[in-house]
Amino acid sequence: MRNLATVCCKGLCALAGVLALAVAGCGGDDAPTEVVLVTHDSLVVSKDVRTAFEGESGFKLRILKTGDANEALTKALLTAGNPQGDVLFGVDNNLLSRALEGDLFAAYESPGLSNVDAELVLDPDHRVTPVDRGDVCLNFDKAWFRDRGIDPPRSMADLGDARYNGLLVVENPATSTPGLAFLFATIARFGEDGWQDYWRRLREKDVLVVDRWEEAYTVQFSGTAGTIGDRPIVVSYASSPPAEVIFRTPRPSAAPTGVIVDSCFRQIEFAGVLRGARNEEGARKLIDFMLSKRLQDDVPLNMFVFPVTRDAQLPAEFEKFAVVPANPLELLPAEIEANRDDWIKEWTDIVIR
User: Fold this and answer.
1) What are phi and psi of 190, to 5 degrees?
2) Is residue 125 part of a domain?
3) Domain for residue 312, yes or no?
4) Contact yes or no for 243/236 (Cβ under 8 A)
5) Residues 136, 235: contact at Cβ < 8 Å?
6) Tell me, what CATH number does 262's domain have?
7) Which residues have C-beta within 8 Å of that of residue 69, sequence separation ≥ 6?
8) Which residue from 243, 256, 261, 231 is spatially nearest to 135, judged by alpha carbons?
9) Measured distance CA(35)–CA(176) in Å, rounded
10) Are residues 26 and 36 in the same domain?
11) Fewer CB within a 10 Å sphere, N or C end of the chain?
12) Residue 107 pLDDT > 70, yes or no?
């Protein structure tokens, strides 16, 4: 239709006929026919859910993956006001201040927020909308410890013991959102005056640092189905144990991995309409759909995190095997905003250099 409209603009509308006026009109660009969702590499949406959105909205959904969450946000900030897409998904509470300071989003209050607990809505101006939640925690490989007759660690502090030397793999907080969440967990647990010494002890115990969760969990961690990794402790999620049940054949009756509950740090992921989006109508429809029961029910077994709406149905595997910390560690958004960059630099000086 774009070519036909161009012909009309050259004064040839009469030759194109009435059909051109009815279908495309005379002059200007075509109306958008797709919604572009910019996101991180870990997003998974079931095919039938994607099809449901396209049928309900009338727009085709195109998903543009641009790296991990940190990379996706950085790239989006470079094009703020002239974005690559219409919606950005994957900004979490630990990166939220960067996104808001960068004037990345246009405000939109979805009607679906009435079905979301107020404590998950961190931006009162509704520039972002919560979509899922989880807890970043230390996970451990039960069989590895059982086979060697070693008690697994029960707390973050235990990792300073000599018996856990060379067993931990973590993600770099400068390049990974789980890594950043775990850094914040150590700050929340040990305080502004104690977290540095904790990381010095971990470095002495030969902690392995990698750039991304995928490398830490699926390559280096010994507890993942099919892995050749040799590190039995990893930074992952409280909802990772159900994945280890689901992806093993035959399915075990108990989760093969455990969670160190006192290490868990709350993570909320958000989506927002990108400022300058070409298809703002479609973007708003996509935000609404992200809070629909259809998509929220799809979240656990695809993303292995929890939905945010009250009426979402948890699968049986989550009910049985996922860990829900009663009091996850948290830091105030204002504290994160004021200190995040300095904390990352200080961590780098202690652990990497």
Assistant:
1) -105, -5
2) yes
3) no
4) no
5) yes
6) 3.40.190.10
7) 40, 42, 90, 91, 92, 95, 177
8) 261
9) 27
10) no
11) C
12) yes
Q: Say whether pLDDT at 8 is over 90.
A: no
87, 271 contact by CB (below 8 A)? yes
Identify the weakest region by mean pLDDT among 4-8, 127-131, 139-143, 198-202: 4-8
Does residue 281 belong to any structural domain of this protein?
Answer: yes
Q: In the Cβ-directed half-sphere of 206, how many Cα atoms lie within 13 Å?
A: 7
pTM of the model: 0.85
pLDDT, one tens digit per residue, over 265-317 is 999 999 999 999 999 999 999 999 999 999 999 999 999 999 999 999 999 99
In the chain, % helix, strand, coil (3-state, to 5) comes to: 45, 20, 35
Q: How many CA atoms lie within 13 A of 141 on its CB side?
A: 26
How many domains does the chain divide into?
3
- What domain range is 190 assigned to? 135-267+325-351
Place of tokens 């400022």: 275
24-49 pLDDT, tens digit per residue, is 333 345 789 999 999 999 899 999 99
Cβ atoms < 10 Å from Cβ of 238: 28
Phi and psi for 15 in degrees, rounded to 5? Answer: -75, -30
Can you point out the beta strands (E) in the chain? 34-39, 60-65, 87-92, 105-106, 129-141, 168-171, 208-210, 233-237, 257-274, 306-307
Domain match, 150 and 234 both = yes
Strand boundaries in 125-251, DSSP class E: 129-141, 168-171, 208-210, 233-237
Instruction: Tell the burial category of 189 from Cβ atoms under 10 Å away from its Cβ (0-12, 13-18, 19+).
Output: middle
